[in-house]
Amino acid sequence: MANSRSALKRVRQTETRTKRNRLLKARIRAFRREVIEAVEAGKSDEARKAYDRMASAADKAAKRGVIHRNTASRYKSRVAARVATL
Fold it and tell me: Which CATH number goes with the domain that contains 67?
Protein backbone atom coordinates (compact mmCIF):
# COMPACT_ATOMS: atom_id res chain seq x y z
CA MET A 1 0.00 0.00 0.00
CA ALA A 2 1.10 3.55 -0.67
CA ASN A 3 2.77 5.37 2.20
CA SER A 4 3.12 8.99 1.11
CA ARG A 5 0.29 11.41 0.42
CA SER A 6 1.41 11.80 -3.19
CA ALA A 7 1.40 8.04 -3.68
CA LEU A 8 -2.13 7.85 -2.25
CA LYS A 9 -3.21 10.54 -4.69
CA ARG A 10 -1.68 8.59 -7.56
CA VAL A 11 -3.66 5.52 -6.50
CA ARG A 12 -6.87 7.58 -6.57
CA GLN A 13 -5.99 9.02 -9.99
CA THR A 14 -5.24 5.58 -11.38
CA GLU A 15 -8.59 4.23 -10.16
CA THR A 16 -10.44 7.14 -11.75
CA ARG A 17 -8.63 6.76 -15.07
CA THR A 18 -9.12 2.99 -15.08
CA LYS A 19 -12.87 3.41 -14.65
CA ARG A 20 -13.01 5.99 -17.44
CA ASN A 21 -10.92 3.81 -19.78
CA ARG A 22 -13.10 0.76 -19.12
CA LEU A 23 -16.22 2.79 -19.84
CA LEU A 24 -14.86 4.06 -23.14
CA LYS A 25 -13.74 0.59 -24.25
CA ALA A 26 -17.08 -0.93 -23.24
CA ARG A 27 -18.88 1.75 -25.25
CA ILE A 28 -16.87 0.84 -28.36
CA ARG A 29 -17.67 -2.86 -27.89
CA ALA A 30 -21.38 -2.16 -27.39
CA PHE A 31 -21.65 -0.01 -30.52
CA ARG A 32 -19.65 -2.60 -32.50
CA ARG A 33 -22.07 -5.29 -31.36
CA GLU A 34 -25.02 -3.12 -32.46
CA VAL A 35 -23.52 -2.73 -35.94
CA ILE A 36 -22.90 -6.46 -36.33
CA GLU A 37 -26.42 -7.34 -35.16
CA ALA A 38 -27.94 -4.79 -37.55
CA VAL A 39 -25.87 -6.15 -40.45
CA GLU A 40 -26.88 -9.72 -39.68
CA ALA A 41 -30.53 -8.62 -39.53
CA GLY A 42 -30.15 -6.82 -42.85
CA LYS A 43 -31.04 -3.37 -41.48
CA SER A 44 -28.78 -1.07 -43.50
CA ASP A 45 -29.97 2.29 -42.11
CA GLU A 46 -29.65 1.10 -38.53
CA ALA A 47 -26.23 -0.41 -39.27
CA ARG A 48 -24.92 2.84 -40.75
CA LYS A 49 -26.13 4.88 -37.77
CA ALA A 50 -24.59 2.40 -35.34
CA TYR A 51 -21.37 2.46 -37.35
CA ASP A 52 -21.19 6.24 -37.07
CA ARG A 53 -21.59 5.99 -33.29
CA MET A 54 -18.94 3.26 -33.08
CA ALA A 55 -16.48 5.20 -35.25
CA SER A 56 -16.97 8.32 -33.16
CA ALA A 57 -16.45 6.43 -29.91
CA ALA A 58 -13.30 4.77 -31.29
CA ASP A 59 -11.87 8.09 -32.47
CA LYS A 60 -12.56 9.74 -29.12
CA ALA A 61 -10.93 6.86 -27.25
CA ALA A 62 -7.89 7.10 -29.53
CA LYS A 63 -7.71 10.87 -29.06
CA ARG A 64 -7.68 10.41 -25.29
CA GLY A 65 -5.04 7.69 -25.44
CA VAL A 66 -7.31 4.88 -24.24
CA ILE A 67 -6.60 2.88 -27.39
CA HIS A 68 -3.96 3.38 -30.07
CA ARG A 69 -5.04 5.30 -33.17
CA ASN A 70 -4.19 2.35 -35.39
CA THR A 71 -6.40 0.13 -33.23
CA ALA A 72 -9.28 2.57 -33.69
CA SER A 73 -8.63 2.58 -37.42
CA ARG A 74 -8.61 -1.22 -37.54
CA TYR A 75 -11.91 -1.44 -35.64
CA LYS A 76 -13.53 1.05 -38.01
CA SER A 77 -12.16 -0.66 -41.10
CA ARG A 78 -13.37 -4.13 -40.15
CA VAL A 79 -16.83 -2.95 -39.17
CA ALA A 80 -17.11 -0.75 -42.28
CA ALA A 81 -16.37 -3.79 -44.42
CA ARG A 82 -19.32 -5.58 -42.85
CA VAL A 83 -21.61 -2.59 -43.38
CA ALA A 84 -20.50 -2.41 -47.00
CA THR A 85 -21.88 -5.90 -47.62
CA LEU A 86 -25.44 -4.53 -47.29
Answer: 1.20.58.110
